[in-house]
Structures are given as C-alpha cells and as structure tokens.
Design a protein that fits this description.
Elements lengths: L2 H27 L9 E10 L2 E12 L3 H31 L8 H17 L4 H62 L5 H17 L2 E5 L5 E5 L4 E3 L6 E2 L20 E3 L2 E3 L11 H32 L16 E3 L16 E3 L13 H4 L13 H11 L2 E2 L9 E2 L1 H39 L4 H34 L1
Antiparallel strand pairs: 1-2, 3-4, 4-5, 6-7, 7-8, 9-10, 11-12
Helix pairs in contact: 1-10, 2-4, 2-5, 2-6, 2-9, 3-4, 3-8, 3-9, 4-5, 4-6, 6-9
C-alpha cells in the first residue's frame, strides 16, 4: 500500500467516524423524543480501480417498524374512544347523583316523600306544607339540571367535533407538505429523517382521532386511509366538512337534519363507531356522545319525568282534579301531552297553583289543586294520596325501562344504576385498551434507542477515531523523515 492510499484510507475513516459519532449523539439526545426513529449509519468500502480507497458513508437509515407502530396507533384510537365514553358516563352519573346522596334525584324523591308524610301528620301546619312545596321544587329542579347537563354535553361534543375537524384538515395538509419536502430531500441526496420524525408524530395525532393505515410510497412518501376505506392522504389531502350547531335541543338529531353529519371530499360518511368510515378513535366517540349516548340518557330521563307527572296527574292522587287538569308536577306549567315528551325532563315544574310566589296557595296541597276554597285543616286525605302516588309501583309508559312496575324512587334508582353500570363497563374497556396501548408502547421503545448500546458504540467510535488519527500521525512522521533526507 502506498503512503497516499494509506492517507486516503485514514481520512475517509475519520470522516466516517465523525458521521457515526453524530448519529450516536443524535440517538442519545432523542432517546425520549416522541416520534423519533433510531438512526443507523450505513458504510461501504471505496475502490479506485483495483485498489481499495477507504470507506464511504452511504447514508443514515431511520429504523421504523410499521407493524408495531400501526398496532400502537390502533390502540391509541381505542383509548381515545373509550375515554370519550367514560367521560360522558361520569358526567351523566354525577348529574343523576348517587342514590344515597341527599342532592341526587333519588335523594330528592326521598325528601319529597318525607315532607309529605310529615305534612300528613300535621295537615294544619303551613310550615310543613311549605316544606312539601320546597321538596317538590327541589326535585323538579334536580331533574331540570340533569337534563341541562345532557344538553350541555351534546353541545360540547358538537363544538369539539368542529374543532377536531378543523385540526384534521390542517394536519392532513401538513402531512402532504411533509411528503413533498421529504421527497425533495431524498431526490437531492439529503437526509430527510428529521422530517420523517415530524410526519410520524403528526400521523400519530391523526390516528388517535381517526385510526389510519399508512402505505409507503416512492421516495419516502406515504398515503393514509381509514379502516372504513376513506382516503385521507394520497397525492393530496382529503377535505373534511362539518357545521357546528351552537344551540342544541332534545328534539334535534342528525336523522331529522337538525344536526350536521360529516363529509369527506363532499361525500357523506357514516360516523358509526364500529363500522363507519371513521370507526374507532376520538372523532367517532364524539359523534356517538352527541347522537347516541346523550340522546339515550335524555330518553330515560324524560321517561322518568313523564312517570312522575303521570303519578300526580290523576284523580287517584288528587280527587279534586278535573279531566285534562295538571297535577302537582306539570310540563312547564301546562298539562303533559304524550306527543311532546322529548325534552320533558328539562321542562318539568311544580304547579303554580300551590306556589305563593306565583299566585298560588299552599293549602291546595292539603285540600286539592281543584279546590275552590280552603277546607278542613285537619284533613290529610289528599296528602296521604300524594304520598301513595309517589310510593306506588307503576309501569313506565316510555323509555327503556318499561314492563316492570316501580315506585318513583325505584325508577330513579334504576336509571342511576344503568348509568353507573355503563360507566363501569366503559371504564373496564378503557382499562383493557390502556393496558394494550402501554404494552405496544413498550415494544416500540424496546425497538427504539438503547442508550447503553449507543454508549458502547461511542467507545468503539472513539477507538476507531484514535486508530485513524494514529495512522495520519505516523504518515506525517514518515513524510517528515523523507523530506529530511
């Protein structure tokens, strides 16, 4: 080997070692960086004619496991979906209140029952009649508040859908822009790995909202499509459209056109969490809350409000009531109409005839709403009838809890029990999804940067650098000796 060849070998070795040290330092520095792909330097020997001419850096490869990453993304989407469900059920169960809490719907029923029994023991006591009125108003108000929570939850979900769609449109376009930038970097011979890291982080965010499959294309570009077959990114980004509705009432649904659905490139798509074009993930979960879970809760609460009104809107509860007259509880001050049950829980109120603040008389709780004049102050007949109306078992006329006779307290308890059961089931599903997500994340990390291994490589790089430097130093010494002859 000639001195010149030896010098070329050593110089190319130093260059390769310098690049290798840069790769190792990048790996160690980004060991905890989300979306970072482990780097590996690729080297090859150089040859000029038949003579070896050192080492050449082919490039820096980015490690990427599409199978594990794809599975982890599906797990991210599942966690986001289940978390959305759990959040709704927690909110609804809290609005209903636990059965043993005084300020729950069940607790308010118990309070009304107690007030009626105490008033029946002293029907001449105006204070006890006032307590009955307060207890009835508290119950109606608690039902109103629970209904408001459901409505607010639907509006919040609708608003978040709009914000999420805006983010998706922006994110999908950024993926396209990164695709172009990566393609340009690769075709020009530059390192595009940092851009790929950015794109992977962005796709991770998109996949938690809508689960996506990633397809590798030429020159580092990718395409994204959903499990339902909708393309989100190919040569260009898809356009998602959704119109938020500022105010939502119980009767407004996507079916009757009062609420907006989702379109992709102008085509309406199903938002079903299991089989729709965007199945799984947070966006489908938000649609489920707005269009299924919250309306279902509203139906159950409306059925309870109807049951409560009908208990007191009969001559069995109040013999003084005339045909078509409202009882102790009303539909916003009017007689309940069976054709107008949607949103009833938000309108239920105490009859103004017994409310002094609205021109009513407390004694009508004792003598009957249809009484024209105050009767015997010691007569507790109607107060006892009202108590029995609350306690008697009665079959619900609507909702999903029909077919079984229940007291008012039993009805409220069953609704809360359903909400709590659904919450527990959702929490169990979330726990399973989270465990699977953590497992896949651990696999990803195991295939990622190993700092111990990188530090071992750094020691080898240090030794290699010293060896190449020693060769150059030796060549310098030889050249000095030759020049001195």
């Amino acid at each position: 080997m000639s001195i010149s060849n030896a010098l070329v070998n050593a110089l190319t070795g130093l260059n390769a070692v310098s690049r290798a040290a840069d790769v190792v330092s990048s790996n160690v520095a980004n060991a905890m960086t989300e979306g970072y792909g482990k780097r590996e330097i690729e080297l090859t020997s150089q040859q000029v004619g038949r003579t070896g001419s050192g080492v050449s850096v082919v490039g820096v490869n980015r490690y990427y496991d599409p199978v594990t990453t794809g599975e982890r993304r599906y797990a991210d989407a599942e966690v986001a979906l289940e978390d959305t469900r759990v959040e709704f059920y927690e909110t609804y169960a809290e609005a209903m209140g636990q059965v043993d809490e005084e300020d729950s719907i069940a607790g308010r029923i118990t309070g009304l029952e107690t007030a009626l029994i105490e008033a029946a023991s002293r029907p001449d006591s105006e204070a006890r009649l006032a307590t009955v009125l307060d207890a009835a108003q508290d119950l109606a108000r608690q039902i109103n508040d629970a209904s408001d929570v459901i409505t607010d939850t639907r509006m919040a979900a609708d608003k978040e859908i709009g914000q999420t769609v805006d983010f998706l449109n922006s994110a999908l376009q950024r993926v396209v822009d990164l695709n172009v930038a990566i393609q340009k970097q690769i075709t020009q011979g530059y390192d595009a790995n940092a851009l790929m890291d950015q794109r992977q982080t962005l796709v991770d965010q998109i996949s938690a909202i809508i689960p996506v499959n990633e397809i590798q294309k030429d020159n580092g570009m990718i395409a994204l499509y959903t499990n339902g077959g909708a393309f989100l990114v190919d040569s260009k980004a898809a356009t998602l459209e959704f119109t938020a509705t500022p105010t939502i009432s119980a009767d407004m649904t996507i079916g009757n056109g009062a609420l907006s659905g989702l379109t992709i490139n102008g085509i309406s798509v199903s938002t079903d969490t299991e089989k729709g074009a965007i199945a799984g993930g947070k966006l489908a979960g938000l649609f489920e809350v707005r269009d299924e879970l919250a309306p279902q809760a509203q139906v159950e609460l409306d059925a309870f409000a109807r049951n409560l009104i009908e208990r007191f809107q009969s001559t069995d509860a109040d013999a003084t009531l005339t045909t078509g007259a409202a009882g102790l509880f009303t539909d916003g001050g009017a007689v309940f109409d069976t054709a107008d049950e949607e949103g009833l829980a938000g309108r239920i109120s105490v009859n103004a005839l017994v409310d002094p603040d609205h021109g009513g008389e407390l004694w009508k709780l004792r003598d009957g709403l249809g009484a024209l004049a105050e009767g015997d102050q010691g007569d507790a007949t109607i107060l006892k009838s009202l108590t029995e109306a609350l306690q008697n078992s009665r079959v619900a006329s609507s909702g999903g809890l029909t077919g079984i006779e229940r007291s008012a307290l039993g009805f409220a308890s069953d609704i809360y029990s359903l909400a709590e059961t659904r919450q527990l089931n959702a929490e169990a599903d979330l726990s399973y999804a989270s465990a699977r997500q953590e497992s896949l994340e651990e696999i990803e990390l195991a295939n990622g940067v190993d700092t111990d291994y990188e530090m071992q490589r750094l020691l080898v790089i240090e030794q290699t650098y010293a060896a190449n430097a020693k060769v150059i130093e030796t060549i310098q010494t030889l050249m000095d000796q030759l020049m001195g002859i």
